[in-house]
Amino acid sequence: MSTRERPVEDEFRAIEQAVWAAPPHRLAEVANRLVGRYANGGDAGVFLVDYPQAFLVPTVPGRPDVPVDNTFPGRAFASQRIVQEPARGDGGRLVHLPLSVQGERLGVLTVGLPDGGPGWLEDFAVVLARALKLADPSTDLFRRVRRRTRLTLAAEIQWELLPAPSCDAAEFHFAGQLEPAYAVWGDNFDWAASEERLTLTVSNGMGSGTDAAVLTHLAISALRNARRSGGDLAEQAALADQTLFARHRGERHVSTLLLEFDLATGRVRAVDAGSPIIFRVRGGAAEEIGFDAQMPLGMFGDTLYAVEEFTVEPGDRLVLVSDGVHAALSPSGVPFTRSALALALRATRMQEPPEAVRTMIRHFLDFHEDAEPVDDAVIVCLDWTGRTDESISGGV
């Protein structure tokens, strides 16, 4: 399907204008109507991925949820490619187009077409994905659609705190996931990118329930405040440490691993303030990157945090996990890190970070043999591609 075969320019401009003019809560409905009118498409539907990224959920009631695994729409979502189902007897077919914005995978647009369909549908999917991303903060509709069961209050706090769960940039590809998605407590991750650097943190708030979620929220807010004020890693950790200590006097703390990537050189500055750990996969071999252990945030309020360094090279993969992952035990008492984590890292070596994270989460859940994990968990995967002449000039 060519991306350049558009309808008459004025017609496509009218389609775009209709998308941008749609009220946020009616955006999916308007998109379905536009596809039917301009592409002669029937059975049009916008499907959003649920919180655990296991199902694609329709935005219009009455249609069934679709598993991501082993389905045509799921294949479009996982591969981020257009998938056409086999033609029916009348020559028509269902076409599934991924909806994503800068590497953040939102869902799938499914359209029933009498033939292969117009080439501009791919461009339409790009416009629609951007509109969905911008509309999301203005309505509860998409958040309601994405939850197949009720979130706990703690999970609501944590998901609202998260930035985009994945991103594609010239220098890196990144994805992260919380588990269990509907009942996460104090585990979280945060990231922010600029022209010069990427800052990435994985945090684990002490305790469970809303107490842990509120504690983590306070810590990440303090880290962001320091970062946005121009503070370096040590200053970010120090402010969060002081903020938590002032509130809890050392009785509650947050374990955090802070990383800052120099996008031009691959040099990484790190502050290890607790239990999250990091693995580097290079040339097919995985190794844990060790740091000098420092106090979790909030223990004493006056800790002077030391910054350590390491370097990533193009082709490196970094996997960050909270203690809910690396300290997990199977029902028979076997540590997850002994063999299961290494197996998960090998099984995902050819997958892009979003799919790698989904696969590692499945390995993590299978490891528990149908038993509920005793702690919540975060898995973050980052592939380093490095800066090229094209990325320096602004290309992606």
UniProtKB/TrEMBL annotation:
The PPM-type phosphatase domain, residue ranges: 169-384
Record keywords, A-Z: Hydrolase
Domain of life the protein comes from: Bacteria
GO molecular function per UniProt: phosphatase activity
Xref: SUPFAM superfamilies: PP2C-like
Full protein name: Serine/threonine-protein phosphatase
Organism of provenance: Actinomadura soli
